[in-house]
Specification:
Helix content is 52%, strand content 6%. The chain is mainly α and 66 residues long. The chain has a single domain, classed as 434 Repressor (Amino-terminal Domain) (Orthogonal Bundle). The N and C termini lie close together (7 Å). This is Helix-turn-helix transcriptional regulator.
């Protein structure tokens, strides 16, 4: 899975820590998602969708390996 979380976060001028606090996770979790080391749960993806005001598939994409 690929994502554009870092870009979406930058558009809103949020640090990893800011975003983490808004959705109730650690900064390390945000870092792992951005680095494609962690695939978030549906609940977490929906929380991100609410922050970014975009559908989940606007910032998460399946890769050819998925």
């Amino acid at each position: 899975m690929e994502n554009t979380i870092k870009v979406e976060r930058a558009i809103l001028n949020l640090t990893q820590e800011d975003l983490a606090q808004k959705i109730g996770v650690s900064r390390q979790t945000i870092n792992s998602i951005e680095a494609n080391r962690y695939v978030p749960s549906t609940v977490l993806a929906l929380k991100l969708s609410g922050i970014f005001k975009k559908p989940v598939n606007a910032f998460f994409k399946l890769s050819s390996n998925d």
